[in-house]
């Protein structure tokens, strides 16, 4: 299939193009939250997890692909570098036309990728357009905050749509994790400063869990202490905890707070004790609309729509659709 060939070629170019590194530096200069380390990670994840021939061919075999003669508006969030790439990928393979509204926080990276693919597939210039304002669309795929989605629900009320809201991920520990598993969990927590829906913002730990054995395995992200924007948020959030006399544990770049909440503030990791697997599974079901994925050493134990191993949260497969909504199926049904 020619479209798959084009995407495989794009994946190779993302790994070899000499201009990529300069692009990363420019993105970080414009938006300090796009630290070069994280942008590089995102590029590698796209190239290795989404643009490999075997993975692409296995994925599209699930569908009866056809050319969708519709114009789809895509609204990208800016919380994580190139966070809308999977939506674009689905639209590209389904043959629909795209009008893409970028976030001002991430308006350098995706256009560069789009230009690369247009050089490989010149016909894409007629199908994909980056716009300042969306109009003349027949369907919408949009990602935003809970507040933004209240606007989206009204504004796009008359067209087929996928609207995504705030979500976070959780991890469940049993106290017997290996150092390697905890170091992998550090990626799930700290990659992209914790801004992604697949970032772990809360951990469940067994009663009596010793956090002294937890902190040392997070130290690969000790460098966050030198990141100004991150530390400004860390300092503010710790001040709030101290003023409110909220019990917490802290090192120089992360605070751990006992809380029933799923979402956590920047620089903060929530935790909750558990002793009964059935109780945890009940909580996961009750909060399923707020949880993107569940991370653990034994994913099969947890009753969640998306359950995976430590260190894999930021490597979703092509079939790991955000919010559990099959984007490709949606497009093919238009």
Descriptive overview:
With 334 residues, this protein is of the alpha/beta class. It folds into 2 domains: 165 residues, Aldehyde Dehydrogenase, Chain A, domain 1 (3-Layer(aba) Sandwich), CATH 3.40.605; 142 residues, Aldehyde Dehydrogenase, Chain A, domain 2. Helices cover 37% and strands 17% of the residues. The protein has a 7-stranded mixed sheet, sandwiched between helices. It has a 5-stranded parallel sheet with strand order 3-2-1-4-5, sandwiched between helices. α1 runs antiparallel to α3 and α1 crosses α6. The model has no long low-confidence stretch (mean pLDDT 95).
Concise overview:
The chain is α/β, with parallel strands linked by helices.
What would you give as the CATH superfamily of the largest domain? Aldehyde Dehydrogenase, Chain A, domain 1
Quick one: biggest sheet? 7 strands, mixed
Which CATH class of the largest domain? Alpha Beta
SSE order, one letter for each helix or strand:
HHHHEHEHEEHEEHEHEEEHEEH
Approximate strand percentage: 15-25%
Instruction: Please provide the count of β strands.
Output: 12
At CATH level 2, the architecture of the largest domain is 3-Layer(aba) Sandwich
The average pLDDT is 95
CATH topology (level 3) name of the largest domain = Aldehyde Dehydrogenase, Chain A, domain 1
Gap from first CA to last CA: 22 Å
The low-confidence runs, each spanning 5 or more residues with pLDDT under 50, are none
Shape: globular
Number of domains: 2
Task: Assign a percent range to the helix content.
Answer: 25-40%
Summed up, the helix count is 11
Strand order of the largest sheet: 8-9-10-7-6-11-12
Rg = 20 Å
| Category by helix and strand content | alpha/beta
